[in-house]
Amino acid sequence: MSIIVGYIPTAEGTAALDRAITEAQKSQSRLVIINSSRGDAIVDKRYAQAEDISALTERLDREGIEHLVLQPVRGNDAANEVLEAAEKYRAELIVIGLRRRTPVGKLIMGSAAQQILLEASCPVLAVKAS
Amino acid sequence: MDVLSSLMDGFATALTPMNLLYALIGVILGTAVGVLPGIGPAMTVALLLPVATVLEPTSAFIMFAGIYYGGMFGGSTTSILLNTPGESSSVITAIEGNLMAKAGKAAQALATAAIGSFVAGAIGTSLLVVFAPIVVQFAVSLGAPSYFAIMVLSLLAVTAVLGSSKLRGFASLGLGLAIGLVGLDFVSGQARLTFGLPLLSDGLDVVVIAVAIFAVGEALWVAAHLRRTPLQIIPVGRPWMGKQDWKRSWKPWLRGTALGFPFGALPAGGAEIPTFLSYVTEKRLSKHPEEFGKGAIEGVAGPEAANNAAAAGTLTPMLALGLPTNATAAVMLAAFTQFGIQPGPLLFQNEGPLVWALIASLFIGNFLLLLVNLPLAPVWAKLLRLPRPYLYAGILFFATLGAYSVNLQAFDLMLLLVLGALGFMMRRYGLPVLPLILGVILGPRLEKQLRQALQLSAGDVSGLWNEPIAVVVYIIVALVLLWPLAARLWRARRPRTGGLVVAGGPAVDGPAVDGPAAGPAAAPFAEAPAVEGRHVEGGPVDGSGAEAPADRGPDAGRRRADATHANHGQEKS
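ok -> structure tokens follow
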């Protein structure tokens, strides 16, 4: 069993990660971190760069959590990547970060959080940036 | 002064509100395509050719000039912030520029690039004003044999000197010349390469060819390599420069300009060689050599000035002789033909107002670019977050629309697809696009001069070299072709210095190529061989195998740039 967290290098992404680490410590399960990009733009600020990832793994090593960091670039939406990983690693919990969206933005771009909430087959913990 | 009053008339035309608007549109579009890797000014001008036919020729060329200069400005932004050159001429900028940005000096790097480009653009355009009429005076006296010889030289030089593989260059040139042959022979009326299709007898439309090779080919290539790991962009505020930065930048700007303009004006100049030379020069002359490799401002200021000066230089043979030396100039030349304007030495005489308005708009565009680039650099960097499927879908849409609108026949869409597939294959197998497009555009004119020369001499082949200038040019052609062979032989005999000769090869060819073809340009050129000489003497003498032993930095940069090319195939000029 494992805990899946959708991570992006922003305030809400970090909040989700912090909470996921707490949960993983509590239940002694493996933490799977998903940071994906569709990979179709030259620059994607939601894709964590090498320094960020190495700082992340260092922190997880220090806290003694069994972890797996995945950065799939396959042209899929972030929501689909998280859901697929949840299936594959038999997730007991998915942790995601929420941010405030305008109704229009949500209408046009859709909501990754909503898709995960509706389609996941395990409990989903949604965290807001503090 | 005749030139001055013509130029003032040009300013009067270019400063009308409508033309200013077109200059602004051109400048904004140019910067945008310059920032985006894979999309260059040549593709943009090609896509706009069909649209431009409804405009006044003057307005259209003012817009094209803005795009051309804008592409040069915009390329540096991506180089500095992302280490991915937006243009091939910004490859050298990426070396020091990206290091500066990583050291937290992105604002200064962007500022010196933008202001250096402005200074070089202004000086380069002034040199164009001075030299173009002199070249014209010289060129009108040329007969068909000399003109033919100069065109042959230009095609061979671009093919043999630029690019990594001569074989691929000549393959591409051959394809271009073959495409240029399609249609009726203009003397005998015989159908050539039409395969019995009556629609082909008018020849292939240059607009369709340019759009297919640049836009469709590139879009297919990108579609084949769509997924890639996103890069990190270095965040930056408004570009600015301190007093110390100014002090260290102004000399490299001027030296870069002095290197860039003559190389741009050469038949095989291009902007890559002078940017490289400028980098080497600055590294040698710098008072802070220890900073090279850690982000030296001179290494950004010099090459960025050089590439803009080269852009201005390229327009000299384009306007004065009708000889394009890079892809954008070639497509602009195609635009002249679209408007029914005959490019060549008579252009200044027949279309004076248009040419001078174009040159005046270069000054205006240069100034607008400074205004658009300096405060807005962070905004331009945001363009890189655009998902490429949307971008290239738009390009394909415009390409199709444009190709159809030229003649309103569905057959052109077939041609677009076939030639687009050709463009894709060329990128796939590493064939440079520039020789093809030059072959298509210069081929028919080359043939015309050849036929004319032979008609004058009643079919006697010696009629091709009965003018002294033609003979001189043929000797240079022979030198250009034999130079690599001679260098190799020499290196085999004297292994210790051979590598250096090869490194200096294209540059040493330079002045020789220039001499008779564009005599006036030789004056500012005097500096280049001297610089090159220093490079050859001062460089550490390496073993036999080295290609460019003197400087590991730019060499590594080139390799990195090659990797970028391989990565998403941006063959842009």
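The first strand of chain B starts at residue 183 and ends at 184.
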